[in-house]
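Pilot study result, target chain (90 residues):
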Amino acid sequence: MRQVPVSKEQPHGLSYSLTLHGEGGMRLVGFDNAHPIRAKTGPAGKRSMIRDHKHRLKTVRPYEYHDAETLLADFWEQVDNILKEKGTLP
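Predicted structure:
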């Protein structure tokens, strides 16, 4: 996470990428605002200006950014959830 000038693409003044990768480098969990995501799925799906999003395995969904503290809490909650699902945590 780093501070950047406030812009249309990064209205929070932050550029962030938080990720957890598993064996073989597969991303298990990620929260970032590095690129816009599709607003719709399928061939008619268009890229929107939604940049805040989360990755969970192969799924990407919009993420509603509130503040850095909430972002970190949400990231660690998802890390715990996926590690429990994988049997790494009790």
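One observation from the pilot: The chain has a mean pLDDT of 89. A full batch analysis is planned for the follow-on phase.
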